[in-house]
Amino acid sequence: MATNETKISACYIVKNESKNLRRSLNSLHEVDEIIVVDTGSEDDTLEVAKEFGAKIFHETWQEDFSAPRNVALSHATGDWIVFLDADEYFTDKTANNLRIVIEKFDKTKVNGLLIYIVNVDEDKEDTVIDTTFTLRIFRNLKGLKYVGKIHENLKLNGFEFPKVMALPVKFLTINHTGYSSSINKAKAERNLKIILAEMETTDSPQAFYGHLAQCYYGLDDFNNAEKFAKMDIESGVVQSTFASRSYRILLSVLSSNTDRNSEKKEVLEKTVEKFPDIPEFCAELAEMYAAQSDYKKAVELMKRALDNYENYDGIEPFHFDNKLAEVARQHLYQWQIFLI
């Protein structure tokens, strides 16, 4: 454990996570205490936690992720809290930066840090599924509380957590294996059950439409995935991170049926308008215009896609890479011939 002026608490809620927890704890560098709240493990999870000197607490599982998280918060004594899931771990290249980053921001007015998270599929050689930014590091302020049984949000005295910024990727990056193929469907089923129960009591059902779309998509129930993705988009609710998720789900469903290309194009137009800086949306719309021989519009959009890719500095994840960029350049060259 570290002995420094700025005290850091690492917090976890766990259940049967011995393998994942060891890897996550090994990626923690220079924290002062580890808080583990167990919700009923039957494997070696608690033995692993003890190996790392964790303070262990118990909370009966009640289909509510916020409850054990709040137990962890109540026991954390650090100035800053690093709250990880057991299947999350800092990458080797950035793990040593944890204390450096926290001490840097301890001298500022920033209260929380959105950390770059890479969702990887362990069952497919750590193939990247997607990326996002999520609040994982924050000051231990009086009045902190997680709200929501699932996809829980951190509140401060009942209000949105203030003064949060996205940390540049090069400083800290987390890998997350929780959406690997072998466990994705089971997690979607679990999440769906909790969300549907919460929908029965909430005054804001629209806050869950996007999460429902994600669950149904993970369960290959594409009719319901499309239904709730559309409801989420039409509701106007804007997620603080991964705001494009429902648009992506809807586009994926529409892409599976070529008879719906005109509908897909209409959705893409709206998506590009909503997320003008995301390169793959511009590129995909460019391809649709090229298929209709509108090469002027296709060239304009593909140039924009490449410019977005080379200069992007936002926090909304994108799935464009060097391979796709090379294909885009080839198509751009071919289309420009038609404009001569």
Furnish the topology, listing elements before pairings.
Elements: E1 8-14, H1 18-26, E2 33-38, H2 45-51, E3 55-58, H3 66-75, E4 80-83, E5 88-90, H4 98-106, E6 112-121, E7 127-139, E8 144-147, E9 153-156, E10 159-160, E11 164-166, E12 173-176, H5 181-199, H6 209-218, H7 222-235, H8 245-255, H9 261-274, H10 279-291, H11 295-311, H12 322-337
Parallel strand pairs: 1-2, 1-4, 2-3, 6-11, 6-12
Antiparallel strand pairs: 4-7, 5-12, 6-7, 8-9, 9-10
Helix pairs in contact: 1-2, 5-6, 6-7, 7-8, 8-9, 9-10, 10-11, 11-12
Give a summary of the structure in a few sentences.
Helix content is 44%, strand content 19%. It is an alpha/beta fold and 340 residues long.
Give structural notes.
- This protein is α/β, with parallel strands linked by helices and 340 residues long.
- The chain has 2 domains: 8-108 and 135-161, Spore Coat Polysaccharide Biosynthesis Protein SpsA, Chain A, CATH 3.90.550; 181-337, Alpha Horseshoe (Serine Threonine Protein Phosphatase 5, Tetratricopeptide repeat).
- It has helices at residues 18-26, 45-51, 66-75, 98-106, 181-199, 209-218, 222-235, 245-255, 261-274, 279-291, 295-311, 322-337; strands at 8-14, 33-38, 55-58, 80-83, 88-90, 112-121, 127-139, 144-147, 153-156, 159-160, 164-166, 173-176.
- The strands form 2 sheets. Strands 1, 2, 3, 4, 5, 6, 7, 11 and 12 form a 9-stranded mixed beta sheet that branches. The protein has a 3-stranded antiparallel beta sheet with strand order 8-9-10.
- The protein starts with 7 loop residues before the first strand and ends with a helix.
- The relative contact order is 0.08.
